[in-house]
Amino acid sequence: MIIKKCSGCGIELQFEDKNKEGYVPEEKFITEDNLLCQRCFKIKNYGENLVNNFSREDYLKEVNECVKKSDIILPIFDIIDFEGSFTEEILDYLRDYRSIILINKIDLLPDFIHPTEISNWVKDRLAEEDIVPDDIAFISAKNKYGVNGIIRKIKNIFHNKKVKATVLGVSNVGKSSVINLLLGNNKITTSKYSGTTLKSINNKIPNSEITIIDTPGLIPDGRISDLISVENGLKLVPAGEISRKTFKLEENQVFMFDVFCRFKILGNKLLESGSKPIFSAYASKSVKFHVAREERVEALLNGNYFEILQGNEKEKYFQNKFVTHEVEIEENEELVIAGLGWINVKRGPLKVQLEVPKNVKVIVRPSIFKNRK
Ligand SMILES: Nc1nc2c(ncn2[C@@H]2O[C@H](COP(=O)(O)OP(=O)(O)OP(=O)(O)O)[C@@H](O)[C@H]2O)c(=O)[nH]1
Ligand SMILES: [Mg+2]
């Protein structure tokens, strides 16, 4: 029996069962090569979100097998959801293998930021996790920025030797989009939904000795965007430049990150001296920021001011167990809520009481952008 694989998602093709993954009609299977399965055809042509039966463990096993056979790994991180891009497995691979880290989606950074400005920030954040890659590339698959540099960087390390390079990362960071650019075609299926690539896909980069391997996205923990419906989760993922607003907060006021989480100030030395803390909030444009008096919060959560979550879905979201974190953030630090956004403290320190659903990853990190006047 001949084995053929879908060139869009890597799944083994079959013609026996229309309702199972990898289906193609029998005559196509027999007579054609470079086939697309029915699922990839629907994603590519109709933008459908088709669920699959693969589990977190299936994906991990597939990625593990590819990594073991690689000369170098190319982990991709999303610059806008940097903390949401890590999983323990990815950090372990990075400690064990040679790597070039690809920082993707830099088109979503505010206009005033140049990638070189955040390069030290990225290096320091990785060093905190004991990671020292061979190189780092700042790229945008959307704008085709920096992608040719990847090939140059691989050649710098391996010269003209044969190389197997595995691209890996959490779902939706743009692995397949980057590989398509390296190949100069749109062979691999990409989509705005998570879980598009199902199995590994090997391709040779033209005019090189490099075999580039795409892998299915690993599933991360702790992102707010994964606690709501897929369609609404996408609204929390910035599609254009991220939105930024600056606030001063009184002691009895609450800052609301839409309905998703909120915090109040727990007293501040600067407040006592009369000057209020200042911070900027960053998130996707669909997320509404709001400052309210504490007694108004309940009514705002129940009313129609915030628009992303409605009806049953909002009720369901509030059924999550919420926990309270007390966090102190220094000037030039920021508080990140994975899968939602962050606040950057310009005048502090700022001590807050944050309410978020349990298991959502909350961290304090050095600011990604230098403060500007
Ligand atoms: N703004 C922006 N969007 C990007 C960029 N690269 C990829 N995307 C978008 O991110 C989404 C996911 O892209 P894919 O290439 O399918 O991501 P993936 O990592 O292969 O995803 P899985 O196969 O599901 O793990 C798509 O909507 C892409 O258009 C980028 O540089 N900038
Ligand atoms: Mg993919």
UniProtKB/TrEMBL annotation:
Pfam families, alphabetically?
Answer: MMR_HSR1, YqeH-like_C
Q: Which NCBIfam families match?
A: GTPase_YqeH
Q: Which domain of life is it from?
A: Bacteria
- Molecular function terms, GO-annotated: GTP binding
The family database entries (InterPro entries) matched by this protein are listed as:
GTP-bd, GTP-bd_ribosome_bgen_YqeH, Mito_lipid_metab_GTPase, NOA1/YqeH-like_C, P-loop_NTPase
Q: What is this protein called?
A: Ribosome biogenesis GTPase YqeH
Query: In this protein, which residues make up the domain named NOA1/YqeH-like C-terminal?
Result: 279-368
Q: Which Gene3D superfamilies match?
A: P-loop containing nucleotide triphosphate hydrolases
Sequence ranges assigned to domain G in this UniProt record? 166-220
